[in-house]
Amino acid sequence: MPARKHEHYTRLQYYKQPTNRTPRRAHHDQPALSFIYGRIPIQLRAANSNLSKLLLFQNFRLVFSARSLAFSVWRSITLSIFAQVKKEVKALCAWHLALKLYFGQKGFIVIRIELAINGQPLIPGLPDDVALNCLLRLPVQSHAACRSVCKRWHQLLGSKEQFFTRRKELGFHDPWLFVFAFHKCTGKIQWQVLDLNHFTWNTIPLMPCKDKVCPHGLRCVAMPHEGMLFVCGGMVSDVDCPLDLVLKFEMHKNRWTVMNQMITARSFFASGVINGLIYVAGGNSTDLFELDSAEVLDPMKGYWCPIASMGTNMASYDAAVLDGKLLVTEGWLWPFFVSPRGQVYDPHTNNWENMAVGLREGWTGSSVVVYGHLFVVSEHERMKLKVYDGEFDSWETVEGPPLPEQICKPFSVNSSDCRIYVVGRNLHVAVGYVLRKQHAKKWRFSVRWHVIDAPEALSDLTPSSSQVLFA
């Protein structure tokens, strides 16, 4: 309870009926309950018993205690007096509304309403709105220690759901790198999350997947500014059986949701998000037969629809969304005698077309789109970043140093704004800051790298996919 100097009290003698006998105290016996209930006015008995209406005042914490009263009695009384105290409660801007009901010694019901003004600030000396803005910037890693400071801190930092919901309400929009990884010995999959402001690692709940999934076959896509992550398809480990699984993770809720299955189970397929819709194409079916089918998911409606066939059966090596189109490449295949195939899907016309020769032959790594241009991080270590020139159907090397030596393959690559994030083995992360300048009516790009070393606890993990979300 707040200090008494901050309290304001109002006592209402709501109902009093003289009686010649002292009422017995109710100890959950039916006669006592009947006696009490019989002396409550008719209008109280008719009151709606739904206590949830009291939650209209979201700033109040309601604490109810009843002495010698059954729950069914004070539930009705509370609603009956609510209208009377409503104006006073608002005027006091109270955060703690305690309703204590008890028997008087002379046979009447006394309702004591305690209205306590904010007795304990979030941070002493600061207005609560300023203090809240500060606390919502705390690294998630420090929440366990911070929530023991006081009750109000515990309410704010007690769960990630509450924390990220409040951040969303106040318009926070910071980047977080979600890395889907697996243990190099056991193959166990997990999600690790890097706070890109504080460079601290956190975890999220395990995916609700009953099968042991091969970490390479599934595909992950994100809607960064909505804070949503989707995991589609995949393959059951040691069986080569594709999955039609679709899972959604919402950052502000900190939980997974199982969504409607894909029309066709597939693994090692292309995926991308265009105008809020999720597209998947190609991949492997049962017995590793390649597919030519494609489909699209509207996350708002929650169901999949087929789209035009690719026209060629093809598994995906890599895919990207560029200029509102889905680009799919199968990559180079040993022994490299045949040029890799590539397809481009235009959702406006629902048609596929062949990819330009220079684009598909030079696509030799994991791609990202920055400044509306396609960049590729080569699958070979210590190679420089390169960018595609659509005008000449050629690739150019980006100025700057190669990928830092701490970043070892297999890589996982993603981007946000003008930054490229490359996650290597042991979850070391290289952040590439891409700069551009115009020279002779043509854009020139350069990159500089910064390495974020992962803690020793993550040294046995290998990345499979990475996505950037904002929250």
Automatic annotation (TrEMBL):
Residue ranges constituting the F-box domain according to the UniProt record: 126-166
Ordered alphabetically, the record's keywords are: Kelch repeat, Repeat
Under SUPFAM superfamilies, the record lists: F-box domain, Kelch motif
Pfam families (UniProt xref): F-box, Kelch_1
Please state what the protein is called. F-box domain-containing protein
CDD domains associated with the record: F-box_AtAFR-like
- The lineage's top-level taxon is Eukaryota
Does Repeat show up as a keyword for this record? yes
PANTHER family linked to this entry: OS02G0202900 PROTEIN, OS07G0153400 PROTEIN
Which organism does this sequence originate in?
Nepenthes gracilis (Slender pitcher plant)
